[in-house]
Write a structure and sequence with these properties.
- The protein has 521 residues and is of the alpha/beta class.
- It has 16 helices and 16 strands.
- Strands 1, 2, 5, 6, 7, 8 and 15 form a seven-stranded mixed sheet that branches. A four-stranded antiparallel sheet has the order 10-13-12-11, with helices on one face.
- Helix 1 runs parallel beside helix 12, helix 7 packs across helix 16 and helix 15 packs antiparallel against helix 16.
- The radius of gyration is 22 Å and the shape is globular.
């Protein structure tokens, strides 16, 4: 089955839906595909803290400097300046005024701006501690009302390129170009050949490659893997940000304790209640995330403990009750027997955000013709070596918007449609083997432990070499497994995961300089 669109968008988080809405309004035919059965499931949905927004008294130059400093002055100055100049206003113009998203207000009815680590002023809008949920659900509903075409429960297998897939020999001599994607219907097992004049990767991050993460299970590095297979440039892949404070609990996994708690006064302590962050940074508990994560990791190693504590109850500076300001965190912790209004929260660092990705320009264009990338899968250069808190939602919003603006200038031509005629349908292996799910789970665990142990918060050259060798071995087996197996979302994700893991390990081994998220011990 072959379909053709002006634009195919892979991913339905903030970046992908923003692009889809803008393209739909511009009259372009576009299709959004997501592998999740619930279309709102994404990293955006789980974002807690907030989004940087315009505020009277703030200055784009000050914001740009905060972003650059947090990123170890490793960021792209033009990209950072574009974000600082254009992003905060778009929060109001698009999300608030057009989509109709209401953010939290104070007792006087004014917008409630909060602060987070490494910000010079309080410039972050939020909705309680469920900002991402509010943005994602509202934008999803808005896209649905507009009539944006969305396929849920469909997993992107690989990007289609003229060079690799076309049966027209002349395409070998043309510039490499993306022309769509093969997409699996998770329910039926059918693979659709979806051709498009442009493809936007908005597939999110890769935190699930690590043993401990705040990301949902679907964050498997799909986009990085597919872009790499298509020949796109991947940069800064060594920079995986670890959030200092994920909930440490036997029964509750993948739950972030937002940095905004520290913005409202919470303090990090050891198990005896002693504060220690001033020993690691003059900014104390509001030090950048890479510094804070390493501080917790170091103190846990010294003390021989598996977690540290975050004390909000004794230091809260907010005006709303804790149970309202941090409603979701309060409820989740309470379900695990922890009352954050009375006692400290057990926390541990966890893989949180990928600062590298598909190299793109100021409009989201990659090095491969026809391929754009927006959101966490992309590397605009905004985050440098370490992301500033609450900058990621803003980046996703702005680059989703920018990519759509650039693409809206183009539409399918008769020549492009003719070329699509040389793209073959997906070919299944003659004999499709069924594999024990336990084998897939075992390979996942091997990848997660390898990255956590050797490509984690602290790295060594020997450890990285070990990781590279182990991942090469896993890849050989997994790719053979993929070629012979009956296709499923699990097998596709496993193949993407090992590819993305190898990219991270190789990038870390090539960079001899400790900076930001990449720390060599």
């Amino acid at each position: 089955m072959t379909d053709a669109y002006d634009v195919l968008i892979i991913g339905s988080g903030l970046a992908g839906l923003t692009a889809a809405v803008r393209l739909h309004q511009a009259g372009r035919s576009c299709l959004v595909v997501t592998k999740e059965s619930e279309g709102t499931e994404s990293n955006t949905l789980h974002a807690q803290g907030g989004i940087i927004a315009r505020r009277e008294g703030d200055d784009p130059r000050l914001l740009a400097e905060d972003i650059m400093k947090a990123g170890g002055n490793y960021g792209s100055r033009p990209a950072v300046e574009q974000l600082a100049e254009e992003g905060p206003k778009l929060v109001f113009d698009f999300l608030a005024d057009e989509v109709g998203i209401a953010f939290s207000t104070d007792a006087q009815g004014d917008l409630s701006y909060t602060g987070e680590a490494a910000h010079s002023i309080r410039r972050i809008l939020h909705y309680q501690d469920r900002t991402g949920e509010r943005i994602e659900t509202a934008l999803w509903d808005y896209a649905q009302r507009l009539g944006v075409e969305i396929l849920t429960d469909h997993t992107a297998v690989d990007l289609i390129t003229n060079y690799h897939h076309s049966t027209d020999v002349q395409e070998i001599y043309a510039p490499r170009e993306v022309m769509g994607a093969y997409v699996l219907n998770n329910r039926t097992g059918e693979v659709h050949c979806i051709c498009a004049g442009r493809v936007i990767l908005a597939s999110g991050g890769l935190g699930n490659l690590y043993q401990h993460t705040t990301n949902p299970a679907g964050a498997a590095g799909d986009g990085i893997s597919m872009a790499s297979h298509a020949g796109a440039d991947i940069i800064n892949a060594e920079f995986v940000q670890f959030h200092p404070t994920a909930l440490y609990h036997r029964d509750i996994k993948r739950f972030l304790i937002s940095e905004s708690l520290r913005g409202e006064g919470a303090r990090i302590t050891d198990l005896r209640g002693r504060e220690f962050m001033r020993e690691y940074s003059p900014q104390g508990d509001l030090a950048p995330r890479d510094v804070t994560a390493r501080a917790l990791f170091d103190r846990m190693s010294r003390d021989g403990t598996e977690y540290m504590l975050l004390n909000l109850a004794d230091h809260y500076r907010g005006t709303e009750p804790i149970s309202e300001r941090f409603h979701r965190i309060y409820e989740v912790c309470r379900s695990g027997g922890i009352d954050i209004t009375r006692e400290p929260i057990p926390v541990v660092p966890a893989a949180h955000y990928f600062c590298g990705g598909v190299k793109v320009d100021l409009q989201g264009r990659s090095s491969v013709k026809g391929l754009y990338a927006v959101g966490e899968v992309s590397c605009t250069g905004v985050h440098g070596a370490n992301r500033l808190a609450s900058a990621s939602l803003l980046e996703a919003l702005l680059w989703g918007w920018k990519a759509a603006e650039a693409i809206s200038m183009h539409e399918l031509t008769p020549e492009k449609l003719r070329r699509f005629g040389h793209i073959p349908d997906w070919t299944f292996p003659r004999v499709q083997e069924q594999f024990d799910p336990l084998l897939i789970k075992q390979d996942w665990k091997a990848i997660q432990l390898t990255l956590w142990n050797y490509v984690g918060i602290i790295r060594t050259k020997k450890g990285l070499q070990r990781a590279q060798a182990d991942l090469d071995y896993y890849a050989q087996r997994i790719i053979q497994f993929y070629r012979e197996a009956q296709l499923s979302r699990d097998i596709i994700e496993l193949r993407h995961a090992v590819t993305a893991a190898r990219i991270i390990a190789s990038a870390a081994l090539r960079n001899p300089r400790s900076i930001g998220c990449h720390c060599l011990g």
